[in-house]
Design a protein that fits this description.
Blueprint: H1 2-101, E1 105-107, E2 120-123, E3 128-132, E4 138-142, H2 148-212
Antiparallel strand pairs: 1-2, 2-3, 3-4
Helix pairs in contact: 1-2
Length: 217
């Protein structure tokens, strides 16, 4: 019986020691780990401030980019509108010239941009560009209605030919003007001769009449 009491008392003392040891460990753990937790919280606060600052900088940069894109888009629209107006005016002028000199152009297909190459390309005096493809497909429209790259390529090709065509037309008109000047000169000489003969005859007749009606001495 006494041995049992002694054993129970030893167990109780052991449990008390373990409890005291556990409380000391918890106290130590609380003592050593609480500062670490406080440090993590302050780090989180610093990180949040940095993130907020970074977000503000990103937002400002995005606003600047959007403002720049808006300005560029506005200028782009103005240039595109002006480009279309100039192409239309140029093509109308070319049409008037081609109609005047009665000239059309055959354009080499390989000089036209694009992956799909036509078999034949012509620009008539109405300034209509006609593209004929291998399978018989045909596309024809006023030159200004094509993309700017095609209009530029066509102008680059036809302008030297147009200059030569205008020079030939100028020589043709020059010869015709020379002929007209010669005809005018000849007709003027003939008219002068005819009118001059009549005036001479009239003058002789007046002289004769004056002599006949003069008093005799």
């Amino acid at each position: 019986m006494e041995e049992t009491d002694v054993t129970q008392r030893q167990n109780v003392d052991s449990l008390q020691k373990e409890g005291n040891t556990s409380q000391k460990d918890v106290t130590k753990e609380a003592y050593f780990f609480h500062p670490v937790q406080l440090s993590e919280e302050s780090g989180q606060i610093i990180d949040e401030k940095e993130i907020e600052k970074s977000n503000i900088e990103i937002e400002q940069k995005l606003q600047e980019l959007l403002r720049s894109i808006s300005e560029e888009t506005l200028q782009l629209n103005e240039f595109l509108t002006r480009e279309n107006e100039l192409m239309n005016d140029i093509c109308i002028s070319i049409k008037q010239v081609l109609q005047r000199i009665n000239v059309s152009f055959n354009i080499p297909p390989h000089n036209l941009p694009g992956k799909r190459k036509p078999k034949r390309i012509t620009l008539n005096k109405e300034c209509h560009l006609t593209l004929v493809y291998q399978k018989g497909q045909v596309r024809s429209a006023f030159l200004a209605q094509y993309p700017p790259e095609i209009v530029m390529a066509v102008l680059w090709i036809i302008m030297p030919e147009l200059a030569r065509a205008i020079m030939r037309y100028r020589k043709k008109i020059s010869k015709r003007v020379s002929l007209f000047e010669k005809v005018k000169m000849e007709l003027k000489n003939i008219t002068k001769a005819m009118v001059g003969g009549k005036e001479a005859a009239k003058s002789t007749e007046e002289n004769v009449n004056a002599i006949e009606h003069s008093p005799k001495t």
